[in-house]
Amino acid sequence: MDWLYLFYFLLGGLLFFGARMCRKGEWNEDYTGLGQTKILQGFMALCVALHHMAQKTCAPWHQSRYIVHGLDFFVPLGYLFVGVFLFCSGLGLYKSVKTKPDYLKGFVRRRVLPIVIAFYLSEVIYLLVRLAMGEKMDALTALWYLSGLHMANFNAWYVIVIPFFYLAFYFAFKHCGREGAAIGWVTVFALAYTALGIILDHQSDWWMRGEWWYNSIILFPLGLLFGKYEKKMTAFLKKGYWVYLILAFGAVFGLFHLATLATDQWWGYYGENWGDPMKLLHRAGCCGMQWLACIAFAAACFLLMMKIKFGNGALKWLGGVTLEFYLIHGIFVELFGYNFTDVAKSLTYIRNVPLYCLAVLACSVPATILFRLLWKAIVKKTLR
Fold first, then answer.
1. What stretches of 63-159 adopt beta strand conformation (E)?
2. Contact in structure between 319 and 37 (CB atoms under 8 Å)
């Protein structure tokens, strides 16, 4: 396992490659700007891919003969990474609506429809790969996959959820006279969505399959809220910066540990008893703890960015294609795993974890580029 130390060192080096530390009294005044957040999102996209690879190689629900340790650190962290995406999405939308005239004009056509097209394109591709790998299905099953309700790409939940939150943002900011009220309505939507997920619990027939669909969703309205009060919050944080930074990182470790205890030992999400209000409270409690961990993690990331200006061009590029990368990398997670989505043999089983990671990423990058070219061509024709 000596390679692990090198791996995590290189991962940290990737984030800080090309970065510049601000001197005493200086700040990264553009820490919430598009260039900086794209680099952050690029790094989080890479971490999400590692999370999915970890789930495939060493998650505890696998048979022991298929478990190969190495990426264990990433198994439980997925919701923290997604929380940063949601926060950046809310923050970016607020900045856009404040700085771009008529931003809401044609919003659904420009911002929502392309995401929907990307999702369904990925469903078609995943369906074809499933068939090529030997999954047996009749015409009805194939149509069920193509509908998107029963997902061929089971990691694409984020791309299903985010259009609904974009629509909530659009209607709230279009029809509310005050920004505070608009953010309030988006928050209400997030709470209602979470309540629905808590009631549904776990199922595998259609959307809302488990807690990962909602256990970081509160970061979206919080991104909007931070955008509204960014100047005041930044000025406040500068006054006691090092204290807040230490507290934020301490909170990440403490709250993540408490959230893990809540989900694994105290309460837990699982339980199909619809008539038991206590179980609903347990799920809500687990979700609340994970929300707090997500908030602390996002806060730590942005506090760090106040003093460190990122400059990695590769991560910036990845941050610009996170949707495409997110949708396509799962194919290779499965193709090189011990089996293909538990329904067929994989293309080739790469048991060596470092080699597995390299193979997945090496294939995902060109596949992302090809997917983007195809997606953009379809969007251009559709929106002509």
1. none
2. yes
Determine contact, residues 71/53, Cβ cutoff 8 Å.
Answer: yes
- Amino acid at position 281, single letter: L
25: left (phi over 0), alpha (psi -120 to 50) or beta: left
Name the residue among 236, 234, 292, 233 with its Cα closest to residue 260: 292
Q: Locate 366 and state its tokens.
A: 């060109």
Tokens matching residue 335: 């193709």
- Per 3-state DSSP, what percentage of the chain is helix, strand, and coil (rounded to 5)? 70, 0, 25
Strand-pairing partners, residue 30, are none
How far is residue 5 from each of residues 30, 37, 57, 340, measured CA to CA in Å?
Answer: 32, 27, 18, 29
Beta strands in 324-380 (DSSP E): none
The helix or strand, by DSSP H or E, that contains position 364, with its residue range, turns out to be helix 353-382
Return the SS3 of 384.
coil
User: pLDDT digit string (tens) for 242-270?
Assistant: 999 999 999 999 999 999 999 988 888 88
The HSE-up count of residue 108 (CA atoms within 13 Å, CB side) is 7
Rounded to whole angstroms, the maximal C-alpha distance in the chain is 66
105-164: pLDDT as tens digits = 999 999 999 999 999 999 999 999 999 998 888 888 889 888 888 888 988 999 999 999
- CA 325-156-158 angle, to 5 degrees, is 95
Phi, psi of 344 (to 5 degrees): -160, 170
Give dist(CA 14, CA 268) in Å, integer.
Answer: 35
Cα–chain-centroid distance for residue 353? 23
**In this structure, what token pair is assigned to residue 274?**
């619809």
pLDDT in tens, 148-206: 888 889 889 999 999 999 999 999 999 998 999 999 999 999 999 999 999 888 877 78
Q: How far apart are CA 258 and CA 266, in angstroms?
A: 10
